Amino acid sequence: MQIRVENIGKKFIREWIVRNANFELEAGQKYTFVGPNGSGKSTLLQLLTGMVPVTEGKIRYVNTDGREIEEDNWYKQLVIAAPYLELIEEFTLRELLDFHKKFKPFKNGISSRDFEDFIQLPHASDKVIRHFSSGMKQRVKLGLAFMSDVPVIFLDEPTTNLDVQGIKWYLEHVTEHTRDQLLLLGSNVEQEYEFCENIISVSAFK
Ligand SMILES: Nc1ncnc2c1ncn2[C@@H]1O[C@H](COP(=O)(O)OP(=O)(O)OP(=O)(O)O)[C@@H](O)[C@H]1O
Fold it and tell me: How far away, in angstroms, is 161 Cα from ligand 1 center?
């Protein structure tokens, strides 16, 4: 999977948040978009997922066989963990996992029980997501991102709400479980992207 970004720009009301952005993102690589608060990291990631439409320019998802994927089908290629994307609060953890797997199967067909062990919440299976702490919810979001069998992973501010143990858990798994995928991060916390080979400053896109 390759994502080609061709001269894209995004304007909210009269303000250009991102402009003149041109780059290519390659499968098997990791990229972090960095920049100060309000610089446009989350906006750019949301443009790349197709959640938010570009004001100008074009984004293309190109398959390994060279075929372009229609924008309506991008969502099948990706998984997103971000503070602005909520889990389904009414479900128990087990219900959420079973629901998620109907749309995005887990890698190597891992079971929901194994998933719960993986995110270190083995006793939370019947607990309603609404009653999870913010750090527990973040582990669920990251676990879904690491375990979903899709080519592209978006992580926006991945260590949000994680304690020291949680950050350690994230760092232990982020490289191992994204090895053959295209990983896109948005961050201004160096620790959460220290392993990343490609750092892109969004301040350049003005
Ligand atoms: N839906 C929207 N309508 C209007 N302005 C918006 C909208 N979404 C984002 N913005 C503006 O776009 C700019 C960039 O916001 P964005 O959230 O992308 O920044 P960020 O780099 O991710 O910031 P942070 O580090 O604080 O998370 C901000 O000025 C923000 O107010």
Answer: 20
